[in-house]
DNA sequence: AAGTGGTCTAGACCACATG
DNA sequence: ATGTGGTCTAGACCACTTC
């Protein structure tokens, strides 16, 4: 530990900014196992005096490692090497139920509703759902958790023609639709990456700016009509989507 | 503009940290169109005096918006509202050629080799490629660009049994393999999100910490043998992968 | 009560871009 | 030459956790 934070080599010219040098040192210590998951780092002030850097510079190095998921900070408690999160693998080309998926893995499932209500549709919803001037949109938003860890935020929108009362949805939206005789047969998903904003980061219990996987799904009825439009945000560190390719 | 950076309302109690208040203000100005793409913001020092905040605090607000892709900073030049990047949509369940893909869209394609060489395999490569003790790994790394914008970093690994001399690959790896009678028929991709590290961020010409889409692909020969293992890193702001779901 | 991370300040120097 | 963002410092107070 004394070695890790010794002021030596911080005067090297051409080694780049000081915060990057420190960041690299810590990252290497983690990669090599000299810092193991769960280990605590010295307090920021202590690292500063040990390295001869200012606390602001130490913080900048630490922040980058928090963003990349290698460190975790807890206010009032300390800075720790992150535990490896076993990535959950999920097939992308099958529409699977979150609940069944997790139970098959022997994990607990919790789902916290953020809202279930009817709103005037946003322009995005009008586009995606093909709504008319007087149509209204039912919105369902929830946080999906497993074993106490939040994994994803799901925000679904439907025309009230298909779901007049969103309050009736307890667990499975598709279950409720099925009971009403509505069965999507095709869906298209679009996947991209984005840094989480303050709100979403808080809901997923990660630092602001952490990378998240954004998935937008549009589901279609056999008639070709759009029935549902869902935007999900997955924790990038906890999820892994798998796709099998057909090669011609 | 005077309005945007007026010190009013920065004394509101209960509105959260100052940098978040400023961040929110700027984000709203962009969303509402009062700040249009390409517009320049005042210099950091000027924003600081206008708002009555310190430069460090202004920087923290700006940094977050740079991370989320809403602002762009150019050293020596200024801070600007980012131009909307039209997201490139790509089908995930087809193995498409980057070159053909872009040309079909009427875009130029450039590919910059970072390295083409033979190495001792890393543990990861041994695992993925199923290498033996004496096998060596051919590595190909390049940055894919289109219209002058870097879009992705591709790092491919193969056993030298399949590709003894990586230097022969000029544009298409699959083309070279095909010429050698090697034709993958199945591939599995795993997708997740990650914050870009200093090196990768530089190669993709974005700020460190920006969200990237990480795709790992393993391709198989008809015999079931693994022929290739590729790790790609796409700019999260410029790419969008599409998958169609089969619903049973 | 003591220690931790979170926020904030005022001021400084450097490297780079543009006129 | 001037202005810009990039880095860095020393010191301060707050909110929270832990003892």
From TrEMBL, chains A, B:
Gene3D superfamilies hit by this protein: Chorismate lyase-like (3.40.1410.10), Winged helix-like DNA-binding domain superfamily/Winged helix DNA-binding domain (1.10.10.10)
UniProtKB keywords: DNA-binding, Transcription, Transcription regulation
Span of domain HTH gntR-type: 16-84
Gene Ontology BP annotations: negative regulation of DNA-templated transcription
Transmembrane segments: none
Source organism (scientific name): Cereibacter changlensis JA139
UniProt cross-references to SUPFAM superfamilies, sorted A to Z: Chorismate lyase-like (SSF64288), Winged helix' DNA-binding domain (SSF46785)
Entry GO MF terms: DNA binding; DNA-binding transcription factor activity
Designated name of the protein: GntR family transcriptional regulator
